[in-house]
Specification:
Blueprint (H helix, E strand, L loop, with lengths): L3 H8 L2 H10 L15 H5 L6 H11 L14 H8 L2 H10 L14 H7 L3 H10 L16 H7 L3 H8 L17 H7 L24 H31 L4 H37 L25 H25 L7 H29 L3 H51 L9
Length: 431
């Protein structure tokens, strides 16, 4: 099933390994017929004098770092499982990209360290492989190293990982829609209330004659107490590090996406209004004079008309529309933190710009209409009805936003009342 090189590596005979590789270096690439493992896989499990053997094998066949056995693990994965940090350093020094290899379940060497309780190995690997971005890598279930550390109640690992600050995604959501806080609440250990007799004394559920069962019950209670203490430590740590539930993270992500969409829409509308307003300012209704015969060339013809009030109104409303739209553009590109109330201010500003553009249009049409009768109908009836419809539309929008705000306030107060009645968050509803 195995070559002589497999046997020499397994026995830890460095001299035999060197001599075999000198005579037949191709044996370094041979896999056994049972577990599909290479000599490097076996060397990764050694605890005594493994470095010389690993270096010799890597010198003969460096690409064997990327070979997977029947369990889907490379030699680096095997070394991580066994906590052979010195061997891992040799691997990473000679073939750094081998750290990116994953098992059949998408697990990295950091995931395997957590699963096999290799705290010191995890610490070393995090520092060594930081530039490879393994710290936030996900397995096939979307779990990061931090997800697994919380699920396995490895409090020291969780504390170490959370101390990385912004380097680690503490609010990452896996494929089940869970953050590390959701996993903690799901796997929390709720202690059972002791059963008491009529006199109020705690009953002994274990028969004192059966010492084996009594010892097992005692060990179980010790383990449950350890898990409860781990739950308390993790809960306090999450509060300190501001870890959120998946519902809050997804809501925050949804809000950010909504804000981005709103910013894009506001920018497009503001740009269109600014373009139209600038065009009206540069090319006023009726055009400009082309000569200096009793007037100045380049000035608006409309400004010399007997209905000069129309020109003043058009220019004022057009200027309001231009300044309002440009203000929205300026605020959007200023880099200020954009929140919902900020978007509301921008919306109101655009409402003013749209209203001013509508007023500019109506007064322009009123001026450009030739016949007095048609002008009267247009200005008095069309403008009147349009303004009325516009005001009703604005009122509906304001009432809608007002009702929406009231609904949110009522919902928040109701949630606050429920929390006040409960007194505190509870993770053990069955107790």
């Amino acid at each position: 099933m195995q070559s002589p090189l497999h046997v020499a590596v397994k026995k830890g005979h460095l001299d035999f390994v060197k001599e075999i590789l000198r005579l037949n270096p191709e044996l370094a690439e041979v896999v056994d017929q049972l577990k599909r493992s290479t000599p490097l896989h076996i060397a990764a499990t050694l605890t005594k004098r493994p470095l010389g053997i690993v270096r010799s094998l890597l010198s003969a066949a460096p690409n064997m770092c990327f070979v997977h056995d029947q369990d889907g693990m490379t030699p680096l994965h095997v070394a991580a499982v066994n906590g052979n940090i010195k061997v891992l350093k040799v691997f990473l020094r000679m073939k750094r990209q081998a750290a990116l290899e994953r098992t059949t379940r998408g697990e990295t060497i950091l995931h395997l360290c957590v699963k096999n309780c290799q705290l010191e190995t995890l610490k070393e690997l995090v520092e060594i492989t930081y530039d490879l971005e393994l710290l936030n890598s996900e397995d096939s279930d979307g779990n990061t190293v931090l997800h697994l550390a919380v699920a396995y109640k490895e409090t020291e690992m969780v504390k170490f990982l959370l101390e990385k600050g912004d380097k680690i995604h503490k609010n990452a959501v896996n494929k089940k829609g869970q953050t590390i806080k959701d996993i903690l609440e799901q796997t929390i250990s709720c202690s059972k209330k002791p059963i008491k007799d009529k006199d109020g004394k705690i009953k002994k559920e274990v028969d004192e004659d059966n010492l084996e069962e009594a010892e097992e019950e005692k060990q179980r209670e010790v383990e449950e107490e350890r898990l409860r203490q781990a739950d308390i430590m993790l809960k306090n740590l999450f509060i300190e590090k501001h870890v959120s539930r998946a519902k809050q993270v997804l809501k925050r992500s949804k809000d950010e996406k909504w804000l981005e969409e709103q910013n894009t829409a506001l920018m497009v509308v503001a740009s269109c209004i600014a373009t139209l307003s600038f065009q009206v300012g540069m090319n006023p209704p009726g055009g400009v004079w082309q000569d200096n015969d009793g007037h100045e060339a380049g000035t608006s013809i409309m400004s010399y008309d007997k209905h000069g009030d129309f020109y003043s109104i058009i220019q004022v409303s057009n200027t309001i529309g231009l300044i309002s739209s440009l203000s929205v553009i300026l605020l959007l590109i200023s880099g200020l933190p954009c929140k919902k109330y900020f978007v509301f201010i921008l919306r109101v500003t655009l409402w003013i710009a749209v209203t001013a553009s509508a007023a500019t249009y109506f007064y322009t049409i009123g001026y450009l209409t030739n016949e007095i009768l048609e002008k009267a109908v247009l200005v008095e009836e069309a403008l009147e009805y349009s303004v009325e419809i516009w005001l009703w539309l604005m009122l509906i929008i304001l009432v809608g936003h007002g009702l929406r705000f009231i609904w949110k306030v009522i919902g928040h107060n109701r949630r606050s009342h429920i929390k006040h009645v409960l007194g505190k968050d509870t993770y053990c509803p069955n107790v």
